[in-house]
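LAB NOTEBOOK - FOLDING QUEUE
OPERATOR: T.R.
BATCH SIZE: 2
PURPOSE: Compare the predicted structure-token outputs for two unrelated chains run back to back under identical settings.
PRIORITY: normal
REVIEWER: second-year student, initials M.K.

ITEM 1
FIELD SEQUENCE / FIELD STRUCTURE:
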Amino acid sequence: MPSGEFHLQRAYPGVPEGQATFGTMRCAHLAGMRFYKLDQKTFTFSVRKGFFRTPGLPARIEAKLPSACLVAALAGVANHFGYGPFTVFPLSRHNEPYMPGLRTCNGGAYTFQVPGPLTVQENVVIPMKVQDAASIRCVYAYLQRGTTDGQSAFLVKISRDGGMTWEPLEYMGIAQALPDAYKNSYDFLVNNEGHGLPATRRL
């Protein structure tokens, strides 16, 4: 642009104060942040008249979109009068975009198990190799027995040269939370940085 400046609209008119598009929070971003152009995909599902509020209503409706990164999902009901209210499911992070949204898988899942008591280890080699490139939807860990002080954390790494060098696969890492034995990558921002979660943005 000739002026070298441009402005982005962070939210549609009428959204709650402090929120941006798709129900996420308005947050400051670091310099050098990348922008992504969104593609819109529409999936239409037909149901017969009188189908709602009946035992025959399906528990879930699936749409196949492999190897994609989802920023948000919008669901609405329409008839010959028009559309009803839309429900928005934000899937992107607020101000720390490790990835622009929620990655979908391409049909595979990988499970790594490390037996024995918790010890301080670095680059624990697990005898499993992945030959083909795969998109990662999420990384999580389970502890059979967590520590009483909650001081346990796990960082998943990947090696592309047979174990000579390693690089993080999930930069936030996986840590144990107290008093519950779970923690997601957003809990740190909520507990330590004072960020809140909108009602529609639960992980």
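ITEM 2
FIELD SEQUENCE / FIELD STRUCTURE:
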Amino acid sequence: RFQPPLDVLSSIVDVCPELSLGLDCLERTPLHLAACWGCDPDVISALLGAAELQLANVTGLLLDKNEGDSFDAEYLSECLERVAGKPDSQGKTPLHYAIEFLSSQVSHQSHQNEEWDFVAMCTLAPVLDRAVAVVKILAEACPDAIEMKDAQGKTPMDHVHYRVRG
């Protein structure tokens, strides 16, 4: 339902790269929203890469690659952390949203079925695989986000405990 085709996303980012850093009324970036709605890991990676490059370009430390200029890999890594670790107005990072999505899928399925049958497991397995991959991508991009607390004082893992345990 919320899976934008990667080629369409790439075309949009190519034409309007500044949109990758755009904010909505709750200060969420496209990366926050993609993580919240359980987008594919490829979409998360594309948004992360586009926002990282745009941030580096905006700050002037990336030069035109077509002219053979080099860019600072360490600085690019810092940009990646800034994008992946950016809190929204509720203090949530994209990792908060990705982990909330993952735990909501497990919680929803366990409430529907007292016993997890084979069909339920087969249906949920690909969704969980994609969600875990997204969490891994975001955690690797900004390891500090694992310990970041939102406006409620909760880390991403606190939200897992709340959702699964109730």
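REVIEWER COMMENT (ITEM 2): The CA atoms of residues 81 and 141 lie 6 Å apart.
FOLLOW-UP: none requested
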